[in-house]
Each structure stands twice: as C-alpha cells, then as structure tokens.
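ASSEMBLY PREDICTION REQUEST
Request ID: AP-0331
Submitted by: J.K., bench scientist
Number of chains: two
Total residues: 482
Priority: normal
Notes: Please return the full assembly, not individual chains.
Input sequences:
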Amino acid sequence: MPYELYYWDGIQGRGEFVRLALEEAGADYIDITREPGRGTGAMFKIMESESEPHIPFAPPFLRDGDLIIAHVANILFYLGPKLGLAPENEGLRHVANGLQLTITDFVAEVHDTHHPIDISLYYEDQKQEAKARSAAFIHQRIPKFLGYFERVLEQNPNGSGHMIGNALTYVDLSIFQVVEGLRYAFPKAMASRKAEYPALFALRDAVAKRPNIARYLASPRRLAFNEDGIFRHYPELDSAG
Amino acid sequence: MPYELYYWDGIQGRGEFVRLALEEAGADYIDITREPGRGTGAMFKIMESESEPHIPFAPPFLRDGDLIIAHVANILFYLGPKLGLAPENEGLRHVANGLQLTITDFVAEVHDTHHPIDISLYYEDQKQEAKARSAAFIHQRIPKFLGYFERVLEQNPNGSGHMIGNALTYVDLSIFQVVEGLRYAFPKAMASRKAEYPALFALRDAVAKRPNIARYLASPRRLAFNEDGIFRHYPELDSAG
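STATUS: Completed
Returned structure:
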C-alpha cells in the first residue's frame, strides 16, 4: 500500500522535506491533495474528523495504513529506517532526529521573517516588523544556524560529507532544501556568506546530483518556490548583511 | 549511571518538560548546571567542543553514557519507553511524538509573544510589537492549540483522560506544564477561557496530584516561573480576550 502524504497543494512548504526523502528512496507514495478530484478537502476531512482517534494539528501528515503521523521530523524519523535513509544505530537515530529538529526550528524562524506578528494577517500588514525581524535573522540567525550545521559536517568523525554517519540520511536531504530555500528567499545574504559554508554548499551540490533527486527536481512534481510558501523572496527583506 | 540533563540554570524553560518526566518516574538524574561547582560552563563545554562528534545546537540536551540527545521532544521520545511513560506500541509512540511536537510549536509561539522581532534584544526593546503579537496569540493561537488538545482528549478512544492510550505518558506531563505556564503568563486570558477546556484542566489537576509530581512541585528543585523563562507574566500583554 502506498504511503499517503497530506499537505497543502501549490507550495513546497514543510511537505517538501518529506517529499525529498520519498523521492530519493523511490518510495511508492501519493501526494493526496494533488490527486485529481481530491484536493485539500481530503486533508481537512481527517483534521476535522470527530471519530479519528489520532487527529493531526496541522499538515504535513503521513498515513501509513491505519497510522497517521504528524510533523516533518516525526514523519522522517518514522520513514527513515524504512526508506534506508537513517543510521542503523538506534542512538544515532535520535541524534539524527535532534539535527532534524534544529532544522525545524530554523524553518519556523524563516517563516516568521515574513510573519513576525500574526500569521492570520497578510505580509503587507506586518511589513515594517518583517523588515526588522529579517534584519535580525540575516545578521544573527543565519550565521548561528548555518555555522552550526557547517560545524556538524566538519566534526562528523567519519569525515564523510554527511550530517551524520557515513551515508546519506534524510537530514542531508533536508539540509539541501534549507540551502535552496535560503538562496531563493535571501539571495544577497546567501551570496555574501557562501564562502563561509563550504561543507554545506558541497552537501547541497552532492544531493542535487543524486539521480533520483535530479530526476525529481526536473519533474513537474517539484513545484517552484513562491510567495505562498515558507521561503519567500521579498527583495525588501534581503540584504548582503 | 544517572542521566545528565543540561539546561540553563535559574529558569524552568524548556528543560522543565524533561524534568517532569524524570521526576514522575523517580529516575536517577543530575541537573548538571545546578550542581555546586558546575554551572552553565559544563553545558557550553559540550556545545563548543571541537571534538565531540554530535554537538547540540542548544540546551536542553541529555547525556546518557556516550550519547548526547538534543531537543525536548527527542529527549522525551528517547526516555519515554525507558521511564514507562510512552505507549507500548511503536506506531503510537510516533503519535505521542507528534503530539509533543505540537506542544513544542506552541511553546515557541509563547516565547515569541515577548520576543517577536529579535531574541537578542530585551523585551523592552520590542514591547509594542510584543503587544500586537500577544493580542493575536490570545485571540487566535490559544484557542486553536488548546481547542485541539481538548479535542484530542475527548476523541481518545480509551476515554481515559489521557492524551494518548489508557495510561499516563510524558505528553500528559507536558500538557500540565503548558496549562500551568499559560495560567502564569496570561492569567486573564486563561481565566476567561477555562470553562471551554474542561478535559485539559482535569488533566492538569490529575497530574498535579500524582505523588511524585506533587513532591517535586513542593521541592526546591521546582523553580518558580519568572521573567527570564519562556512563560513570562507581563501584565500589559495579557487580556481577557
């Protein structure tokens, strides 16, 4: 039975971290809301169900048989071993999950650069605050997070170019997505800092060249970044830092 | 060998979710930075290590032998089965983790009520923005999250008064902490809404009465809420909503 991924249609968003793992593994999955005749109604039906024993708070969530699993890091923790994208060792799987949760936190901060006050309002209604938050994000948070990820790559005792262990995991795929997203949203900030993160950019390049990922990125299944997603390019929020 | 918990001294903060699980289980643990002669130096030594293969991004983190595990939800996912505070079923453990990650997201939003623009600045430097963000938090986010948690309790097919399954898990303990924290930070908002969340408040009361938790709450190990933590009481941010 194929995995069922439930996420908003029309954006990469948080669902993309899950898609990259499913695509790399060549897994059999259905991106439910993009199926003809399904749409987001199928997603809301589960979220608003009054009989489902384990309702998710928000998308993305994954259905595997009767089990509904919510949150990107949790879905990847669940899928990782099944897809051959997690460390063999149980303890190291928790280390991988810790790295993924740091990515989760970073992605939430990316979102808040354009929605610092109220996620129910438009960006235009909180533009001044977004400028202030983005400036802090570019000057402090990007170096803090990317500097950390760079160190993780450097200190990997396997010296493998991977975030953990000596083989590709879902964490590497998520790092690819983070770097891609930041380059889209903050091209000036990223261009001015690129030289500081050689290992991160090397990992980004290595992931992009993997046959299944390259095929996915060239397919219509990979949506373009846009201003409805998490990573949004508003030129007024970007600066060389 | 006792578990070692690394977290900021002087606040409940995110570390408290881990402490509650360790205390309920009567586990042997050391709250490292509160040990005489240790302090936060012991924590930074690990975070800034250039040889440690798995460096954490931020506290809290847990050391169990050679393994260092970061992020609250990850620590609880790891400890849950060992402490008898997780479902037996592997799939349900992922459902529990999904609930805990929704709590994580909510706690991050609580933090941003007093730091909506820049976490490196003082609250006083972003007070106007904090008022706007808190108003949105009280009117939209508290009802959205607490309404969801209330539904989870109501729809638990075991009708057990627990967030998942028919026995206490770490998720229940975290819900206690969230309700306590919100009552401290936003007493007017919570008083005006209490009647809407009978199952949540009943769970809060049930957790507070558990012998190990009651003993912990009365001990000096339980710090008081204060304005350095996640849940801060700034009267100007609170309203009946």
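REVIEWER COMMENTS: Chain B has a mean pLDDT of 96.
SIGN-OFF: pending second reviewer
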